[in-house]
Amino acid sequence: MTSKDCSNNECCKIDAVVTVDAKGQIVLPKELREKAKIKPNDKLAIIGFQRDNEICCIVMLKVDALENTVKNLLGPVFKNVFQPEMEK
């Protein structure tokens, strides 16, 4: 898939193919790390999607991005729960 196949500047494509070594480790290619702005000591959340009790898809998200998404989604919900009501 090329970038011209993507609409609204959103696209899902294979950016790299990596090999798992004997220790279970992988190396993220430099070009991918640069595109994703992944720096040393960044934390990545690994999310597995299951089908028939087997993981069929693994997604990695930067923890900072995941944290911000959760705050944006749940912040307004919990704001009213945890803030005391203003005195009338």
Structure description:
- The protein is of the alpha+beta class and 88 residues long.
- It has one domain: Pemi-like Protein 1, Chain: D, CATH 2.10.260.10.
- The protein is built from 2 helices and 2 strands, in the order αββα.
- It has helices spanning 30-36, 63-82, and strands at 44-51, 54-62.
- The protein has a two-stranded antiparallel ribbon with strand order 1-2.
- The longest helix is centred in the C-terminal third of the chain and has 20 residues, at 63-82.
- It is extended, with a radius of gyration of 19 Å.
- The model has no long low-confidence stretch (mean pLDDT 84).
Percent of residues in helices comes to 25-40%
Number of discrete helical segments: 2
CATH topology term = Pemi-like Protein 1, Chain: D
Order of helices and strands: HEEH
Would you tell me the overall average pLDDT?
84
Please name the CATH architecture: Ribbon
Question: What is the gist of this entry?
Answer:
This protein is of the alpha+beta class.
SSE diagram, text form:
Blueprint: H1 30-36, E1 44-51, E2 54-62, H2 63-82
Antiparallel strand pairs: 1-2
Task: Jot down its keywords.
Pemi-like Protein 1, Chain: D, 88 residues, 19% strand, alpha+beta, single chain, two-stranded antiparallel sheet, 31% helix
